[in-house]
């Protein structure tokens, strides 16, 4: 393992976060705070408790998941797309690094940023609503697995995209709608039966449900299924990254 | 002629004994066909000697950058093999790439990074321990030390070019690839760059450069390779190349204008200037002047006197154009 090289990439990516603190951390925190103000305080005060949890507290896991999913994808995709766009990718490809080390460095940095962001949003939420975390270790595990899985997805998008429009395409047209419709702001048990069935095809439902269970002990689907689905995402994205590396797709002509 | 001198010996300036050359890069039967079907390299074989400056010449699209990119690990070869320092670039890619530094043709940099951060990153990328002392010396040698905290986007084009060299040298490579190092830089910077390359060679670094500037190859290279349409059509010591392929031209300024070339001189294939005041005789340098003597005798016999003469030798550029023209 070329650990010094992995460390160099990791620190380089983390330094980029520090340089773009407004965009990387402050902006998601402000938008999440706005969600709390609008849905938690203004609208939430008129909504009944869900499964014995106040609406403001109920949406916290979903809001964290929303940010972690979108930021994992955004950070990892931009991290590998930018060197491809500027041409500095030549340095990565000519360095004594394996594909695994390249992916682990970028995905590791993106996941770290998302986890930090998730924890900051959690701390922010605690300012607005009383919070309890029933299963803190499970909460951290779900956070870690989700951040890793979707950073891998971001890495794949960053390699696939050949322009900025494509880079934004999947996060805007796929990730965000799936997250909003994945029970971030509601329990899918509140939907008519047909839409409950449809929702089960939305992979984000399982992530949000498992994560919410770690907070409130209530879930839309079984925790074991949520965990299995999260691990399945991880496996699928790892397989795709492995294929990319085996074929040199979009990296080595 | 591509491999004829690869196992040979080269006489260094000032050295009385020819020293055997060690091969640091061995390219064998390298082919590259892109997905579009374009065949960029056709069974290229080449050995690069340790410590030499090797210039790779060729027109646009000849395959120069593809060849460099394969050796450096950026492009995958379709077939063939490359060994760097004895390490196969696929099976032993870590060891092979550790020996190589690459300065790309384009000024590709992280615009928002500082000079210091980017060279430190490059060193780390190649798995080398941090060495602020080495990086400081490197930046000082390249006149970038004063700008170490500057963002790269604020640097001039020449500084960015030097920065790319600093990044390529940051991990102390044994082989340095310079892809069109002086493209678009001014004359003074070109001279500085040439000096830098000579200094690097003196420190033991093997340098492979591609260039469009023939005078650059003529000025710096120990050996020259010419690539055209994906084929390496020639590899030769520069001096030997000039000797073998160089043409000399003898121009005679006549005392009396010559209305036409006399039939007795036809065998010499003389060119007559439009006003007849000059005739030019072209001969190859391996003729050792025998042709000139015969010409002068024939001129004397024909009663043609001259008042002055001038000789010129073909430049590498003319040799290159001739070679590539033959390939077309």
Give the topology, please:
The complex is a heterodimer of chains A (253) and B (328).
Chain A: H1 3-19, H2 21-43, H3 55-86, H4 89-93, H5 99-128, H6 136-160, H7 164-180, H8 193-199, H9 203-216, H10 223-247
Helix pairs in contact in A: 1-2, 1-5, 2-3, 2-5, 3-5, 3-6, 3-7, 3-9, 5-6, 6-9, 6-10, 9-10
Chain B: E1 9-10, E2 19-20, E3 23-33, E4 39-49, E5 53-57, H1 64-72, E6 79-84, E7 87-88, H2 93-98, E8 100-103, H3 115-125, H4 132-141, H5 157-169, E9 175-179, H6 187-202, E10 206-211, H7 214-220, E11 223-228, E12 231-237, H8 238-245, E13 247-254, E14 271-272, E15 278-284, H9 290-301, E16 306-313, H10 316-327
Helix pairs in contact in B: 3-5
Provide a quick synopsis of the model.
The complex is a heterodimer of chains A (253) and B (328). In chain A, 77% of the residues lie in helices and 0% in strands.
């Amino acid at each position: 393992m070329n650990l010094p090289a992995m460390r160099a990439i990791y620190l380089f990516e983390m330094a980029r976060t520090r340089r773009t603190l407004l965009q990387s951390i402050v902006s998601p925190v402000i938008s999440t705070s706005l969600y709390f103000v609008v849905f938690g305080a203004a609208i939430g005060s008129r909504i009944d408790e869900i499964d014995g949890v106040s609406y403001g507290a109920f949406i916290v896991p979903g809001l964290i998941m929303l940010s972690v999913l979108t930021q994992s994808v955004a950070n990892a995709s931009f991290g590998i797309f930018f060197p491809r766009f500027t041409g500095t990718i030549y340095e990565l490809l000519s360095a004594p690094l394996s594909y695994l080390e390249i992916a682990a460095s970028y995905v590791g940095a993106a996941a770290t940023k998302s986890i930090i962001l998730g924890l900051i949003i959690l701390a922010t939420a605690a300012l607005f609503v009383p919070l309890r975390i029933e299963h803190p270790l499970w909460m951290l595990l779900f956070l870690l697995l989700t951040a890793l899985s979707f950073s891998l997805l971001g890495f794949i998008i960053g390699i696939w995209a050949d322009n900025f429009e494509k880079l934004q395409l999947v996060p805007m047209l796929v990730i965000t709608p799936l997250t909003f419709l994945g029970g971030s702001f509601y329990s899918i048990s509140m939907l008519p039966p047909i839409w409950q069935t449809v929702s089960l095809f939305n992979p984000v439902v399982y992530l949000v449900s498992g994560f919410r269970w770690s907070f409130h002990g209530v879930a839309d689907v079984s925790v074991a299924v949520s965990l299995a689905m999260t691990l399945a995402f991880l496996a699928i994205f790892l397989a795709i990254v492995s294929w990319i590396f085996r074929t040199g797709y979009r990296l080595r002509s | 002629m591509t491999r004829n001198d690869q196992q040979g010996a080269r006489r260094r300036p000032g050295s009385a004994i020819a020293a055997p050359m060690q091969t640091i890069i061995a390219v064998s039967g390298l082919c590259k066909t892109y997905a579009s079907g374009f065949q960029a390299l056709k069974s290229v074989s080449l050995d690069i000697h340790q410590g030499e400056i090797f210039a790779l010449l060729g027109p646009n699209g000849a395959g120069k950058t593809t060849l460099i990119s394969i050796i450096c690990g950026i492009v995958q070869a379709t077939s063939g093999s490359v060994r760097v320092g004895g390490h196969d670039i696929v099976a032993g890619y870590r060891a092979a790439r550790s020996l190589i530094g690459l300065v790309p043709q384009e000024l590709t940099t992280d615009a928002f990074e500082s000079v210091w951060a980017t060279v430190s990153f490059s060193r780390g990328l190649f798995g080398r321990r941090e060495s602020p002392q080495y990086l400081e010396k490197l930046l000082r040698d390249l006149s970038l030390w004063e700008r170490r905290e500057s963002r790269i986007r604020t640097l001039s084009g020449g500084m960015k070019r030097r920065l790319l060299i600093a990044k390529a040298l940051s991990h102390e490579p044994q082989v340095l690839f310079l892809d069109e190092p002086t493209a678009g830089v001014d004359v003074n910077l070109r001279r500085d760059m040439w000096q830098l390359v000579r200094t690097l060679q003196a420190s033991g670094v093997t340098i492979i450069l591609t260039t469009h500037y023939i005078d650059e190859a003529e000025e710096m290279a120990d050996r020259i390779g010419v690539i055209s349409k994906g084929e390496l059509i020639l590899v030769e010591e520069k001096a030997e190349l000039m000797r073998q392929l160089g043409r000399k031209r003898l121009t005679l300024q006549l005392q009396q204008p010559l209305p036409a070339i006399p039939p007795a001189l036809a065998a010499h294939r003389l060119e007559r200037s439009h006003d007849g005041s000059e005739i030019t005789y072209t001969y190859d340098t391996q003729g050792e002047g025998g042709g000139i003597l015969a010409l002068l005798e024939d001129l004397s016999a024909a009663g043609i006197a001259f008042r002055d003469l001038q000789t010129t030798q073909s430049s590498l550029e003319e040799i290159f154009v001739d070679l590539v023209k033959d390939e077309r």
